[in-house]
Design brief:
It is a single chain. The protein starts with 7 loop residues before the first helix and ends with a helix. It is built from nine helices and ten strands. α5 runs parallel beside α6 and α5 runs parallel beside α9. By secondary structure, it is α/β, with parallel strands linked by helices. The strands form two sheets. The protein has a six-stranded parallel beta sheet, with helices on both faces. It has a four-stranded mixed beta sheet with strand order 1-4-2-3.
Length: about 250
């Protein structure tokens, strides 16, 4: 059992709560038995599990090292207000060459990690494999990972510049659809088989250059007096509507 907070392994795992630590080690943390079990079920390689003495037995049969730590040490490693007593260290997937794109999401400077994680969860639920991010919150941060509810295991995260995103879409013949409150009524629009839905920054929306590059700009109709929806809520409404309308073609 590790009982010292000064243990180098403990320090390294604790550093993964910060973006600098994740980038330096190319690793991130998931907490709680369900998230860890989901990682195994999704065939995500678990590098190591850390658990308190009361929780360690839950991981018998897991094909990875399980290290027991004291309660104070676990609290030092955990990012949660009420720690669940177990966490796992996973590798951040390397972005490889993109063979092709079909249906995908593009997040333009979405800054809240909770929104980014929720959108990852939506993408996984809808069968959207590729999620492109332009200067958005780190999807491997603890808050984003929690909000993804294991969706992070089932999507291909691609960090790109605006130019790279547009080049990828053009190369693969994927139309860009931007969600903007000045767009046409979402419910009247039927997309093509492949499309990229772009959602923007919580305060400033989508950049002008992306809006100009869009083949279509769409909006969720709302009663007067309501200016906008939370970006993750709007993404859910828009994405499900586009998929449903496509099936009606």
């Amino acid at each position: 059992m590790i009982t010292s907070k000064q243990n180098q392994t403990v320090k390294t795992v604790a550093s993964l709560k910060q973006k600098k630590g994740r980038e330096l080690n190319s690793k991130y943390v998931v907490e709680g038995f369900k998230m860890i079990a989901d990682a195994r079920n999704a065939n995500v390689k678990i590098l190591e599990i850390f658990a308190t003495e009361n929780n360690a037995s839950s991981f018998e049969g897991f094909d990875c090292p399980v290290t027991v730590v004291s309660e104070p040490v676990f609290k030092c490693m955990s990012d949660e207000v009420t720690p669940q007593g177990s966490l796992a260290v996973l590798e951040i997937p390397k972005s490889g060459a993109i063979a092709s794109l079909s249906r995908c999401l593009l997040l333009d400077r979405v800054q809240d990690p909770g929104n980014v994680g929720t959108i990852m969860r939506l993408a996984a639920a809808c069968g959207i494999k590729d999620v492109l991010l332009i200067d958005s919150a780190d999807p491997y941060s603890p808050k984003a990972v929690r909000s993804s509810m294991s969706g992070i295991y089932r999507v291909n995260v691609i960090k790109v510049s605006e130019g790279e995103a547009l080049s990828l879409l053009q190369k693969n013949g994927v139309p860009l659809i931007c969600a903007d409150m000045d767009g046409e009524n979402l419910f009247d629009y039927t997309p093509s088989e492949s499309f990229c839905l772009c959602v923007g920054n919580e305060g400033n929306g989508i950049s002008d250059s992306l809006l100009k590059s869009a083949s279509k700009t769409i909006a969720i109709p709302m009663n007067s007096g309501v200016e906008s929806l939370n970006v993750s809520v709007a993404t859910g409404v828009t994405l499900y509507t586009l998929l449903y309308n496509n099936k009606r073609r």
